[in-house]
Write a structure and sequence with these properties.
The complex is a heterodimer of chains A (270) and B (221). Chain A has helices at 56-63, 95-101, 120-130, 136-149, 165-177, 195-211, 223-229, 247-252, 257-269; strands at residues 18-27, 30-40, 45-49, 71-76, 79-80, 83-86, 89-92, 105-108, 183-187, 215-219, 232-237, 240-245. Chain A is of the alpha/beta class and 270 residues long. A 6-stranded mixed beta sheet of chain A has the order 8-9-10-3-11-12, with helices on both faces. Chain A has a 4-stranded antiparallel beta sheet with strand order 2-1-4-5, with helices on one face. In chain A, helix 3 (120-130) packs across helix 4 (136-149), helix 4 (136-149) packs across helix 5 (165-177) and helix 5 runs parallel beside helix 6. The longest helix of chain A is centred in the last third of the chain and has 17 residues, at 195-211. The N and C termini of chain A lie far apart (44 Å). Chain B has 8 helices and no strands. The chains are: A alpha/beta (270), B mainly alpha (221). The A-B interface holds A 64, 66, 95, 99-100, 102-103, 105-107, 109, 111, 113-117, 119, 126-127, 130-131, 158-162, 175-176, 179 and B 114, 116-117, 119-128, 130, 134-135, 138-139, 142, 217-220.
């Protein structure tokens, strides 16, 4: 792959927080994402929607560097994420670069993935103490503030097995935020939850959008929620962005036939 | 001779043999657990040299007889300039043999930790070593405990072979008594019961207790 056309660093007045530049992802002969170009501005909340298999979760996983990419470059805060400069050109990032670069990104998963052998508080402190090198006192203070914010301070000494799905997901959000990421990724964070607890998780995300200048990407099936809180909706279809726009325009007046089909199918299922 | 008289006469010898068996068991267990951990992790290493070494060790010690390994370590290695006293040769052989089985348990348990745990640790930018030590191994440990319970009972029974290089363990003392008195039923009967008691009333309850402690640490108890 020829990387000579990609800048070593993004400069100028409007450097986006995240830039996917011609990013292609294949599994064998199947192209999951085809030359994706997507910018996310600092502080922007983008919801990624689409039918299953459209590549939407892959977008998040590539940004978290959980998946490698086959072509193109991803930049975060102007710096290459999937690659690193060597001399005057970009080469594939090594493990060390990836570890440093991805520390500005936080992610929450559909199945929470809390560490079962640690309490809620220990889950939140793990990254700050072990990775950022904070003292236990600082890490605890930071973690307790975040657990307070997500409404889980009463349960801070409980292990995940004693918490409901909604509670676990709120702890997982606090754990990701404890690393002070610039970009937060939410991968179907309400999909595994019982309907009655979805609200407690969406309330936390609403609060984040309202009170923090975080850049966020969210894969979701909850159209109403996405419409409420997003700055932009990206509709993926077969590995490409089929349509994107501001929520009111996107949901109110979709331009593409496939978007309309998808939205009416979702509405019919509701 | 009644069993009471037998025990009154030979109880001291049997007790001293039992202590040696317990010592062999504890030391061999330590060797087995240590080696199993190293080889189990080694088998998952990305480095082919480390992986190759681990696989070779596992293949050799799992694929050949414990008795032959014991004789090799005690009788053959000295020819290459590596001499162990019989007590050390005994527990090292048993430990290395059982460790090869343990390595597969360790590897299996590590791979059985859900993928989401690896990914969560990854998203926190943890280094591979920290991720293994702080996130994966503690959970793998819980998964592998029941299998280790089984294996340690096998190990205890395996230590009886060290009598064949004249380590004065329970089996050795029992054979001595048998050879000089021909009280086979009493001698081997007593040994049978003692091995059973050690396995059933010491190792098994200890492992159960350990499983409970670990479960509590996961907040599951």
């Amino acid at each position: 792959m020829d990387l000579s056309n990609y800048p070593l660093e993004l400069t100028g007045p409007d450097v986006p927080m995240v830039r996917f530049m011609n990013v292609t992802k294949r599994y064998g002969t199947l192209t999951v994402l085809d030359e994706l170009n997507l910018d996310v501005a600092a502080g922007e909340m983008v919801s990624v929607i689409g039918p299953s298999g459209s590549g939407k979760t892959t977008v998040l996983r590539m940004l978290m560097t959980l998946e490698t990419i086959d072509d193109g470059v991803i930049y975060v805060d102007g710096k290459p994420l999937t690659h690193m400069p060597k001399g005057n050109r970009l080469v594939r990032a090594d493990a060390k670069h990836l570890r440093r670069a991805r520390s500005s990104i936080g992610m929450c998963f559909q199945h929470f993935n809390l560490f079962p052998h640690m309490t809620a508080l220990q889950n939140c402190m793990e990254g700050p103490v072990q990775v950022l090198g904070l003292s236990r006192r600082e890490a605890q203070e930071r973690s307790e503030n975040l657990l307070e914010m997500v409404g889980m301070i009463d349960k801070k000494d409980q292990h995940p097995s004693r918490l409901s799905g909604g509670q676990q997901q709120r702890v997982a959000i606090a754990r990701a935020l404890a690393m002070r990421p610039k970009v937060m990724l939410f991968d179907e964070v309400t999909s595994a939850l019982d309907p009655e607890v979805i609200g407690e998780v969406t309330a936390v995300i609403r609060k984040l959008v309202a009170e923090h200048q975080l850049t966020m990407l969210m894969v979701t099936h909850q159209m109403g929620f996405a419409r409420d809180i997003s700055d932009r909706i990206c509709f993926f279809f077969k590995g490409r962005i089929e349509e994107q726009g501001a929520p009111d325009q996107f949901f109110g007046n979709p331009q593409r036939e496939r978007t309309r089909q998808f939205l009416s199918a979702v509405k019919a299922a509701d | 001779m009644s069993i009471i008289e037998f025990l009154q006469t030979y109880g001291g010898l049997i007790a001293s043999g039992t202590w040696v068996t317990i010592a062999q068991f504890l030391l061999a267990s330590a060797v087995a657990i240590g080696v199993a951990l190293v080889a189990g992790l080694g088998k998952l290493s990305g480095n082919w040299l480390i992986r190759g070494t681990a696989v070779t060790y596992i293949e050799i010690f799992r694929g050949t007889s414990l008795l032959v390994q014991l004789f090799w370590i005690f009788y053959v290695l000295p020819l290459f300039g590596l001499t162990f006293d019989k007590f050390t040769a005994g527990f090292v052989s048993v430990g290395l043999n059982v460790g090869a089985y343990g390595a597969e348990i360790v590897r299996g348990a590590i791979q059985a930790v859900p993928k989401g745990q690896w990914e969560a640790a990854y998203t926190l930018s943890m280094s591979p070593a920290k991720r293994m030590r702080r996130i994966i191994l503690p959970q793998a440990l819980v998964l592998m405990l029941p299998s280790w319970g089984n294996l340690l009972i096998e190990l205890l029974k395996g230590t009886a072979l060290v009598a064949l290089i004249s380590v004065t363990d329970l089996m050795f003392q029992t054979r001595q008594i048998n050879a000089s008195t021909f009280l086979s039923a009493q001698a081997f009967g007593t040994a049978l019961v003692i091995y059973y008691i050690l396995a059933r009333f010491l190792i098994t309850p200890f492992m159960r207790w350990l499983e409970r402690v670990m479960a509590r640490r996961l907040g599951r108890a």
